[in-house]
Amino acid sequence: MANPLHGIDPARFEVVKNALISAAEEMKIVLAKTAYSPLLKVAGDYSCGIFSARGEMVAQGPDLPIHLGSMPDAVRTIAETFPDAAEGDVFIHNDPYRGGSHLPDVNVVMPAFHQGRLLGFGCVRAHWPDVGSATPGSYGAVTEIYGEGLRLPPVRLYRGGQPIPDVEAIILANVRTPAERLGDLRAQVAANRRAAERMAGLAAKYGAAELLRIMDAVLDYSEAMMRGALRGLPDGDAVFEDIFDGDGIIEDGDTADRTFRVRIALSKCGDTITADFAGSDPAVAGPMNAPLSVTASGVYCALKMVVDPRSHIPPNSGCWRAVRVTAPPGCVANAQEPSPVVYANHEMSHRIADMTFAAMAQLAPDRVMCGSQGTSAVTTFGGVDYRTGERFVSYESTKGGYGARPMKDGINAVSSTVSNMLNTPIEVLEMSFPLRVEEYSVVPDSGGAGTFRGGCGVRRAWRILDRDLRASTCFERTVTPPFGLAGGLPGGRARLSMTLPDGTRRAVPGKGAYTAPAGAVVTIEAPGSGGYGPPAARDPAALRADLADGYVSPEAAARDYGMTDRD
Amino acid sequence: MAWRIGVDIGGTFTDVALVEEGSGRIAIAKVLTTPEDFGAGVLAGLRQGLDEHGIAAAEVTLLSHATTVVTNALLEGKGAPAGFIATRGFRDVLELRRSARADLYDLFQDGPAVLIPRRHRFEITGRIDAQGQEVTPLAEEEMPALVAAIRAAGLRTLAVSLLFSFLNDAQERRLGALLREALPGVQVFLSCEVLPEIREYERASTTAVCATVGPLLEGYLARLQAATGALGLPRLHVMGSSGGVLDVAECLRMPAAAVESGPAAGVVAAALVGRQLGIGNILSFDMGGTTAKASVIADGEVAVTADYEVGGGTNSRRWIAGTGHPIRVPVVDLAEVSAGGGSIAWIDPGGALKVGPHSAGALPGPAAYGRGGTQPTVTDANVVLGYLDALLDGRLLIDRAAAASAIREHVAAPLGLPVQEAAARIVEVVNANMCDALRIVSVQRGHDPREFALMAFGGAGPVHAAALAEELAVPEVIVPPAPGAFSALGLVATDLRRDFARTLYASLEGVDPARIAAVLAGMEAEGTAMLAAAGVPPERRALLRGADCRYRRQAYELTVAMEDGPVTAATLATLAEGFHARHELTYGHANRREAVQLVNLRLTALGRQAPLALVQPMRPEAARQGRREVWFPGGARPCPVLWREGLAPGAAIPGPVVIEALESTTVVPPGWTARVAAQGFLRLARS
Q1: Domain boundaries in chain A?
Q2: Residue B98: which of A221, A422, A431 has the nearest Cβ?
Q3: ipTM over 0.85
Q4: Do B95 and A412 touch (CB under 8 A)?
Q5: 3-state class of B558 per DSSP?
Q6: Could you state, in chain order, the average pLDDT of each consecutive group of 10 residues for chain B (687 residues)?
Q7: How far is CA A35 from the centre of its chain?
Q8: Residue B101 to residue A414, Cβ atoms within 8 A
């Protein structure tokens, strides 16, 4: 592929490519500013993209890498199911077995036309805080996808620019907070409308044929740059295995959640790379089974950062043509119907991204990152707000450490790899829900010791006010810690507990639902991240600064860094 | 005779604009900026301006100043070591931010800068809940240890931000009083005084920015006020980010309000020129050496935003928490892109032509300046295309061959294009980048560019303006007087302004209008007192009400103007309808069956300046006409070159034509006509 631009004027190419990216960014603004649920409007759990008529992602907004792998599949399903798509149509679906990721992630897709010609699609994938099921927030530990909530196959939601009332009615009857859902749905449609307008505007200006030619070239361009960068890395094979916490189901005769094992084998040759998951454990009973596209998202995200560490290549479907992800059907990394999947979406992809770095460390040790938080640390509360009598569902993701890198410390308390959600401001949370946050702080000594220290994890504690609530959690890294590399030590594990009003403390499951009584305080610690290089080689000034700031305690400085009183 | 003076400190030059009241006559002085002590350059510029034009200090009625001190201190990490005091359990709020990273895929990115290090962050027991009720009293017995720790750290300035102080400020004010008493000489900034608004991180960040730059700003303004006072000039005013000037005392109470001082002045100048020409809708476009800034003026009002970050990597992606420090004060809504005369063109590994973000800066500068630059810049492309020739009326000579050779080596040869074609492509790409900035403030905010005029200034703005207007379908381009010192010019016409805000959560349907009236009355009393203290006579005072509203379950508000007079149910109904209309305009739909939620009440206190009409000095005797080859789409052609000062008012000059002036060049492409307006403005429209 000598000239990925196929003779298109390089200036026009750049202009149209950027216009498509701007359109995806605009979609994001419209969604954030008009959505109703805190998860979308303040925490940003959604992705927006512009897709070709074949369903390839041409431009992504500054959204969540977790959706890289599966959003194109979701749009392709729509394109294939509705060859009769017409102007004013809007489609919806959330089926993980048709290109979705998990049921709470709802895809709203809208075709764009110019003079009757299909140009492509806009797609907004947004995480709804509730899609039904037995647990508020739809994060219960169930054993079949049928128990995970409302499952929507690809269906038409709007015709001729107007909502189809029958479909909307089915959706709203199956979720806990229908008024909020309707607001979110309108916001998703508004964002898509913006995408369709922008694409139509570009077609009017440059001609539909030229726009489509450039959209194809944008994909080829990313592919060519990705392959070029891959050629610059050494060829070779690498294997990495890691232990996962469990699936949230305690099997008969067990007293704790059983761990399982995932294995990745990377093979890099010339301008292609393969990631295979053969040798991973078979499907688990609970919702930790990853559809292959979710597994792929974890691989893609880490490879993008390794292959293109300064982030020059526009992330789109073209990037992944050089990457092949395979896993035996029915293993935990390639879920088959009717396995439940809700946790896997972010937990498996987080952990698999970290594993991809660990494997790549054997091939390209100068451009990897140590084990990060490896979890979305999801905490949900649901029930009735004593102040209003209204039902509510609160969904939060607490961010921990971002792994250390060769020549650089990790970052404290920031999202890593597949995720980039925001926290919910405490004052917004408390005004919205009957909770009081008692602490939100950096956890000392949770950043793995190393020449370059891992980023620290984060503690957050909520007091339950006035009435008992139903709570659920979805964490990884409560059992095995985030790994260090090149002699660096692992970071701090996740920890969860609940203090009851009488002062007794009890453990909270890493995955699953439980009752949080009024007056109790639920405390979680999102994991830290691993350190890089031997701790003894850390710059003494950096260690002294860590001590002064309390990121490292004097005990840990002595134990992990061998710091003596003379230092 | 009475004169008003504006002083704007830029990266290279400090501009002084002097405007005579009544006649509107403009005089400009330019001196080199003195980064080691900005005040020295200001004084030199003032002296030069007064001397050259024979103006006595006693004739000066207004002295306004745009300062970069605040921005620079934050960018360079030169603020004062500050302490931060939070509710127990929350001292890390400043570091935890919003937990998103700035770049999704940049493996080696740095974490966002932390304004106040953890060792200088403290906590005190006490808690207000989401209803504004005290849950835990302030633990005054913890004060001795807290005070001792602050003393031991040697901190001279403090930011205090307690949870829910925007609903109930009793604990925060009590803590502030105890700190001020125990630590005389230490500056204490309280979040309830700086920004009584919801969202703990943004409020804490704004307060921390104030504490960090406060001492520096105080020293700087005190020295400058003493020096200008010694020259016999009137009391100093400082340009605020929201597009109004502040009294020095006001500025020191709220240092974060002086962040985008200079750029705000440029937008205010654009609004002034618009008023003078009777044009309410303006896209303001300011193109300098390294960046281009766009802003919007709709119906004569400068657009301001409350979501702004200072410092850090980029401000252009404001919807995601980035790397800078958020300040929630009103800031002129600017979109900034890395596109200026010095931006470097390059071919990326995929074969696409890029321009920027790297800039050749002032040194080595564009290849054409002959100061050692070898990389092709936008200025070089403009030279090769014939748009630019000698600059500063021949004082800065242009090396055409060097420009051509830089473009040939780095762009034309790799792409297999003739040099002039390559230069045209460079301009096309940089224009597209600048269009992005203009689109952010127009289309993305729901404004149709076809209903706006483009006001172009900054050294390079008028070169590119017509091409941008063509791209965005803007019907008219206005080139104002002194485009190269336009921000300084804006300072002379700026109203005294202070913005107040109070959070009041209520549904517009259910709220007792008396509650709203009471909050507004409180702010109006404060605003009136501020205007009186600044010596603004009553007939020049204005108090403008506004309300931040949203649908109940949304997270972001839109600010809607609110009518004067008694607050009644009818007032609130009008406000609700104003919100629905604004929502529909901005996002394409409104949910009229839903109740509208009030979040913040706002009040802008204005001390209006007497109206001013600017006049570009014209000298018919300066008329001259040249001719050179200039490239326009389709190829190079011979093109007349005129000198702006010598143009006859009322003249209509058909394009293609290049109009040169001392510090900026205007390009009029084929199909466009430049008209010389009565006051010397250039107005370009499609023929």
Answers
A1: 10-222, 369-567
A2: A422
A3: yes
A4: yes
A5: strand
A6: 87 84 85 79 91 91 84 77 97 93 85 89 97 96 98 97 94 98 96 88 94 90 89 90 83 86 88 90 90 90 76 41 68 83 88 85 84 93 92 74 96 94 94 87 76 92 96 93 88 83 86 93 90 84 92 80 91 92 78 87 87 79 88 92 90 94 90 90 93
A7: 19
A8: yes
